[in-house]
Amino acid sequence: MSEQTDAGTGQQSEGGYDPHASSLRGTADPAVLEELYAIRGSIDNVDATLVYLLAERFKCTQRVGRLKAEHELPPSDPGREAAQIERLRRLAADADLDPAFAEKFLNFIVSEVIQHHRAIAAENR
Ligand SMILES: C=C(O[C@@H]1C=C(C(=O)O)C=C[C@H]1O)C(=O)O
Hints:
Layout: E1 3-5, E2 12-14, H1 30-70, H2 78-94, H3 99-124
Antiparallel strand pairs: 1-2
The structure holds ligand ISJ.
Ligand ISJ binds at residues 61, 64, 76-77, 80-81, 84, 109-110, 113-114.
């Protein structure tokens, strides 16, 4: 990751990313914008973490895909998915996150994983 500190603002940026990019410039009080940018700094950290977490998860699921293909197991496992959804809905509720959103998010990821598994199985045939 290439990180630079902007001489003028002291802001860290990677790959030309401007953490102050906004369509709101000039429309709000500068103090409000400063508060907004401070909160967005944390949003950026969370988003970066999500990318790293997803990358690790997909590394794992690719391994599962290769294992399933080698042993001619089906790409999807509905029993496993149902248990994951139930668990994540419970965790979401405890964390004050909408369980329906948690379920939708998991389903979105799992459907991508299953497509990968189908592709790996097709390559193995
Ligand atoms: C990763 C697997 O394959 C599929 C994808 C899953 C997931 O992304 O969590 C879960 C179940 C399967 O439908 C698995 O069987 O563990």
